[in-house]
Design brief:
187 residues, mainly alpha, 10 helices
Length: 187
Amino acid sequence: MNQLITNIPAQWRVAFGILFTAIIMTIIYDYGWQVGLPLSLRNLSGGILFACIMFGAGAAYVGARIYGSTYKQAIKIALFIPLIWHIKEMVVTMGFYGFAAGLYSGIQGPYLFYYGTMCMVIAIFHLCYQLVLKFQHQSTDKLFKTTSVLFLPMFILGGLEMIGLFVFGVDIFVFQGFLAGYRAFIQ
């Protein structure tokens, strides 16, 4: 086990720890009833899984920065967790509806907004990390610039959604856009 840990680059250790935790919690949450695990344990594993999915990117970002990653490299490492979850959801959808429909569902607006939300989570964790460094009198990044850049994807997606909604009367990314594309796809 020690050799496995030493073979993983230090910047990736937190991300892989979160991913491993999420995999274990998924197994407990999805299949725990088959081996008789109590409902309270399965619900707890679901809560931990939700925390891994929603806050794992921020924790992986801070872990990567603590272990010496640059700003851009830490963002790439942090987005590894959401990307793996996204691919898993696409594979689950492919299992129910087929390859093409699963692939189509994976490129829809809710996932774009999920990535925008993950960028905002990373921004909040980045802000907290930079404030801690500032209070410890260590060198920090430019606080406003590096934090505000991570809010841009959600502002852009939200702006495009509002333009589509108010100008064209169509919900581009979320529900109407998905159904319109899916209807065109299956006909």
